[in-house]
Specification:
The protein has 9 helices and no strands. It folds into 2 domains: 83 residues, RNA polymerase sigma factor, region 2, helix turn helix motif (Rna Polymerase Sigma Factor, Chain: A); 68 residues, Winged helix-like DNA-binding domain superfamily/Winged helix DNA-binding domain (Arc Repressor Mutant, subunit A, Orthogonal Bundle).
């Protein structure tokens, strides 16, 4: 991959095309976690690659190039989110109990889980992905999204409750 990065830094179109082909499928997976649908994910992917090619000369060959590109995709998703929704939408959920059966989650197919995450309201989805997938702290999430730490914690809690409720509904009763 180093030779492709070097070629991209020099502006070679063939290197850009090869690098896109090598990383696009994996980065699409990242974008899908943040997008409400495939079309939005494709937009994030395209905008992210444009930014990556514009800033590739900033990559210092320190650390993982793929990790650097992933960060660009996540930041692009955050920027798009900020542009489209100035404030996080909150919904009061009362009387929600936690799912004790972790087996329900392990029985879900990855695509089913992805669909559940994609169906989260925008604010919930952003906070859930940044915290649970990317490993950001609530302080970092609050700074990136322009909300309070408490707002981040609340959105995460509500996202978890929402997912737990949806998982409960997917469970199939056992027959004896």
């Amino acid at each position: 991959m180093e030779h492709l990065v070097a070629g991209c830094k020099q502006g070679h179109r063939k290197a850009q095309e090869a690098l896109y082909k090598q990383l696009s499928a994996k980065m699409m997976g990242v974008c899908m976690r943040y997008a409400a649908n495939r079309t939005d994910a494709e937009d994030i992917l395209q905008m992210g690659f444009i930014k990556m090619f514009q800033k590739i000369s900033d990559f210092k060959n320190e650390g993982s190039f793929e990790g650097w590109v992933r960060r660009i995709m996540v930041n692009t998703a955050i920027e798009l989110y900020r542009k489209n929704a100035r404030s996080l939408h909150t919904v009061e959920l009362e009387g929600v109990v936690e799912v004790d059966d972790v087996n329900a989650l392990s029985q879900l197919a990855v695509k089913d889980l992805m669909q559940l995450v994609q169906n989260l309201p925008d604010g919930y989805r952003m906070v859930f992905n940044l915290y649970a997938i990317e490993g950001y702290s609530h302080k970092e999430i609050a700074e990136q999204l322009g909300i309070s730490e408490g707002g981040s914690k609340s959105q995460l809690s509500r996202a978890r409750n929402y997912l737990q409720e949806k998982i409960r509904k997917l469970e199939v009763p056992a027959y004896e």
